[in-house]
Amino acid sequence: MSNLITEEVVADWVGRYEKAWRTTSPDDIAAVFTADAQSHEWPYEADWIGLDAIIDGWKSREPWQSSGWTFAWEMLAINGDTFALNGIAAYDEIGTFNNLWVVTLEEDGRCSILRLWINEVE
């Protein structure tokens, strides 16, 4: 893959991300993130640096995310190796969130930097 990503590449990555979020399997998460990836969330102070930290962070959220959720998204922009999307996640236990994602992908299709701005709406 070149550094210029396409909508198809984004859709594939989001699909792998959703699978990993559902399973929280370290192998599924590793299929989404590079070994030295960064994941940042605002307004929460979640700054996970490295795959192990991301896996641990996701595992810490299993109790509330495993109760059920839905996710819908739309593409906002693609610029070279980075894309932005609007994602709406509705969790049975904690509410609905309308989020801005900015994701940078490496040539192998895995994320090296994920930035999330999280907005609770319900």
Structural commentary:
The protein is α+β, with helices and mostly antiparallel strands and 122 residues long. It has a single domain, classed as Nuclear Transport Factor 2, Chain: A (Roll), CATH 3.10.450. The chain has four helices and six strands. It has a six-stranded mixed sheet, with helices on one face. The longest helix is centred in the first third of the chain and has 17 residues, at 7-23. The chain is globular, with a radius of gyration of 14 Å. The N and C termini lie far apart (39 Å).
Q: What keyword list fits this structure?
A:
122 residues; alpha+beta; Nuclear Transport Factor 2, Chain: A; 6-stranded mixed beta sheet; 46% strand
Strand order of the largest sheet: 2-1-6-5-4-3
| Element string (H = helix, E = strand) | HHEEHHEEEE
| CATH class category name | Alpha Beta
And the CATH topology? Nuclear Transport Factor 2, Chain: A
Largest sheet: 6 strands, mixed
What is the total number of structural domains? 1
In DSSP terms (H or I, runs of 4 or more residues), the helix count works out at 4
Structural class by sheet pairing and helices:
alpha+beta
Low-confidence stretches: none
The value of Rg in angstroms is 14 Å
Our estimate of the beta-strand percent is over 45%
Strand tally is 6
The separation of the N and C termini measures 39 Å
Looking at the structure, what is the overall shape?
globular
The average pLDDT value, as a whole number, equals 94
Write a concise synopsis of the structure shown.
The chain is α+β, with helices and mostly antiparallel strands. Helices cover 30% and strands 46% of the residues. It has one domain: Nuclear Transport Factor 2, Chain: A (Roll), CATH 3.10.450.50.
